[in-house]
Amino acid sequence: MEAIAPSLLDPKLLRLFDALYATRSVTRSAELLGLSQPTLSIWLRQMRVALDDALFVRTAAGMTPTPRAQALVGPVREVLEALRRLVAVQPAFDPATAQRRFRICMTDASHVTLLPALLARVRALAPQVRLEAAEMNERVAQALAHGEADLALGFAPWLSSGIYQQTLYAQDWICLASAHHPRLRKTLSLARYRAEAHITITGGTGQALLEKALSRQGIERRVLLELPGFLGLGAVVSSTDLLVTLPRHIGETLARANGLAVFRCPIAIEGFHVKQHWHVRYHDEPGHRWLRGLVAELFTQADRGHPAPAEPAGSLRA
User: Fold this and answer.
1) Which residues are paired to 198 by β-bridges?
2) Which of 225, 248, 264 finishes a domain?
3) Which one of 64, 103, 159, 169 is least enclosed by Cβ atoms within 10 Å?
4) Do 95 and 290 form a contact (C-beta atoms < 8 A)?
5) What's the distance, CA 274 to chain centroid?
């Protein structure tokens, strides 16, 4: 069996060779390949020059292969079949039977607002899949790139090159207080906001937006309690007269769970978007696609109609 010359290894030339051998017709081969006849003639000429052989000769029976073409047809079809197998290889992901761990970097707020619903859906659809919640920190980009984490959920504006992102929902800001707060009724004025004592969350990824807004507007709060995260926050607010300023999603979740009063925030604070992030290396991996689809289905805002498309962040170009 004759070896294929390197000049013939262009897949388009291999497909042309196979089509001509099978049909014995320039017109039929052009139709099968979606080519114009002039283009097909150019490619055939390239093969003839490269192999120094006519390959196919026009006869009464059609384009008849030369002995060289007859010797090459076997190797050509082997290569084409290998290329088809290579393209077709795609590991399947069946959530019903999959045994796999997904590691998701999350903010503390996402532990409260997103994780319970995601875990419930995963358990219903993929009972043998394990979720692991990891910290959202400055190593997230490296973890996603190296496969140490599958997704990052939350507000992570520092993630850029090599990272895809999909918007889940927008966030603005609200204030929470005890439902029995002695000085608050239906509204919270700026004067009352300044006068009351506050809790601040030092570990939230949106905290910088709050501090920037306070500084820009010259508002200095009287902070009596600092917490690194949201653990215990609802209980503290419900049992004291302290205020806390939070992104809406985590705030409303805590308010429902602890019977807290929700107020429009009287200061202007820049909003942000909660997104899911993943590395371009895993964009087409079936398990990743399933998990990302689940997250988008669960958490994309209903009034958006359809999930926002995935888009590259920073300098990445898909």
Assistant:
1) 223, 243
2) 264
3) 64
4) yes
5) 12
Contact 277, 163 (CB under 8 A): yes
Name 250's Cβ contacts closer than 8 Å, sequence gap at least 6.
109, 112, 113, 230
Q: Give the dihedral of Cα atoms 68, 73, 74, 79; nearest 10 deg.
A: 120
**Same domain flag for 166 and 277:** yes
* 80 and 127 within one domain: no
Q: CA separation (Å) from 132 to 86, 103, 212? A: 33, 5, 33
Number of domains the chain is built from: 3
Residue finishing a domain among 56, 88, 120: 88
Can you say how many angstroms the Cα of residue 227 is from the centroid of all Cα atoms in its chain? 31
Report strand pairing: 197-201 vs 222-227: parallel
Domain that holds residue 288: 101-171+272-312
- Residue 293, C-beta contacts closer than 8 angstroms, at least 6 positions apart: none
In a domain, 224, yes or no: yes
pLDDT given for residue 69 in this prediction: 92
Pairwise CA distance, residues 200 & 233, whole Å: 10
* Residue in 9, 121, 127 with CA at minimum distance from that of residue 72: 9
| 317 occurs within a structural domain | no
Are 248 and 182 found together in one domain?
Answer: yes
Same domain? For 157 and 177 the reply is no
DSSP 5: P
Pinpoint the alpha helices (H) of the chain.
Answer: 11-23, 26-33, 37-51, 67-88, 108-113, 115-125, 140-145, 190-195, 207-216, 233-238, 248-258, 286-299
pLDDT recorded at residue 7: 56
Does 15 map to a domain? yes
Q: What is the pLDDT of residue 203?
A: 80
Q: Looking at residue 4, what DSSP letter applies? A: P
CATH code of 31's domain? 1.10.10.10
Rg (CA), the chain: 31
What residue ranges of the chain have pLDDT lower than 50? 302-306, 314-318
Tracing tokens 């966030």 back to the chain, one arrives at 171
pTM, full prediction: 0.68
